[in-house]
Design brief:
Elements (H helix, E strand, L loop, with lengths): L2 H5 L13 H8 L34 E5 L2 E5 L8 E3 L8
Antiparallel strand pairs: 1-2, 2-3
């Protein structure tokens, strides 16, 4: 919830902000070191979804980094003591 919403005396602040992904993309393009790719449609067909294996101790992780094609996880939000991990798919049945 934004400060605008918390300190507003009217309900109009609840509806402030971008209405869709395209408008949000326009806002994010102003951010440094940010790349925006708007997907106008996402197919939600269950048959198309991958079935990845779980990431060990994912609830303990507070920092995820993707760099040069490699994924890293760390328990500290500072990213200290990073451990490399991969997204692996379960064998198809």
């Amino acid at each position: 919830m934004s400060q605008l919403q918390r300190f507003s005396s009217t309900d109009l602040a609840v509806y402030w902000g971008p209405e869709n992904a395209l408008q949000l993309g326009n806002v994010l393009r102003r951010c440094a070191k940010t790349e925006v790719c708007v997907l106008p449609h996402i197919d939600r067909d269950e048959a198309l979804k991958p079935d990845p294996r779980g990431i060990p101790h994912i609830k303990r992780q507070h920092c995820f980094t993707y760099e040069n094609g490699l994924c890293f996880r760390a328990e500290l939000s500072t990213g200290a003591e990073q451990k490399r991990f991969e997204f692996l798919l379960r064998p198809s049945s």
